[in-house]
Amino acid sequence: xxLKIILILLIIFQSCTSKKTESKKMxxxxxxxxxxxxxxxxxxxxxxxxxxxxxxxxxxVFRLDGKGETHTPLxxxxxxxxxxVDQETEEKTKVVVIQGEQVGEQRIVGVRYLNGGNGAxxxxxxxFISE
Length: 131
What we know:
The protein is α+β, with helices and mostly antiparallel strands and 131 residues long. 24% of the residues lie in helices and 28% in strands.
């Protein structure tokens, strides 16, 4: 089971890296730029597991199949403003958190980039910004 989760995460991270750079495509898929003063108005999924419809509507970034693993929504504030901290370069990028789910021990978060696009990361990669 752990191997399945790791493979799913690798697929998500690989596809999300490319999504960040494909801003034109993301605009067509509801993941265009986010104005900083309107970040609270970004669509999101909270308190439940995301569906394909949520992704299609721009309310979620990913959908996981937790076959055999406990799969629950994360109890975090959504939407939230945070910094995604690149684990290799320590570069911080401001994001809007729109989704959070836990499968087994993995805590996965969906984010929107302010300049357009989306991504997924692990919860520990975020520094939440207090208002």
